[in-house]
Design brief:
Blueprint (H helix, E strand, L loop, with lengths): L8 E9 L4 H13 L6 H18 L7 E9 L2 E8 L20 H8 L2 E6 L6 E8 L30
Helix pairs in contact: 1-2, 2-3
Length: 164
């Protein structure tokens, strides 16, 4: 559990149309929020790109729907959250087909982040997929592939409080 003073500070939040062109705008925003000299900027930009692409491709979002992107920081960790309309057909997961030509977004997220997970907000209320990226690379060993945290006890804070 994090101490009370460890609550992340939101450094940027934006709502984007559920269209492919929004991914490049999101990359630009994340880079501007963190700054080019931030040690995690490239990983955070990549995480935002992958999470948004997944939201557009795999959620029930229509082009007139908005996808939320929030970036926050606390104690050497950058949090990237994407909130989408959710899907009635599937939940975010790491694909197990190594020969697939696409579908590696969450595998990438699991490699560049120290943790990631999903919060389902209820039927018709959407979901949030988040990841936590260290501001400095870990000092020992390669990272292991991790799956999402339980939706009942997410480790990352809810950054979109009150947004439906």
């Amino acid at each position: 559990m994090k101490p009370a003073g460890a609550e992340p500070r939101v450094i940027g939040s934006i709502h984007l149309a559920a269209i492919r062109e929004s991914v490049s705008r999101a990359r630009t925003q994340v880079r501007s929020w963190l700054g080019d000299d931030h040690p995690s900027v490239d990983d955070a930009v990549l995480a935002a790109s992958e999470l948004l692409t997944n939201a557009f491709r795999h959620s029930n979002g229509k082009p007139y729907d908005l996808i939320g992107l929030t970036v926050a920081m606390a104690e050497g960790v950058v949090y990237v959250e994407v909130r989408d309309p959710g899907s009635t057909f599937s939940a975010p997961h790491i694909r197990q087909e190594p020969e697939a030509e696409d579908g590696r977004g969450l595998l990438i997220i699991s490699e560049i982040s120290q943790d990631w997970g999903v919060r389902e907000h209820g039927i018709g209320l959407g979901r949030t997929v988040w990841c936590a990226i260290r501001a400095a690379p870990p000092s020992v060993g390669p990272s292991a592939v991790r799956g999402p945290r339980s939706t009942s006890a997410p480790r990352a804070p809810a950054l979109h409080r009150g947004v439906s």
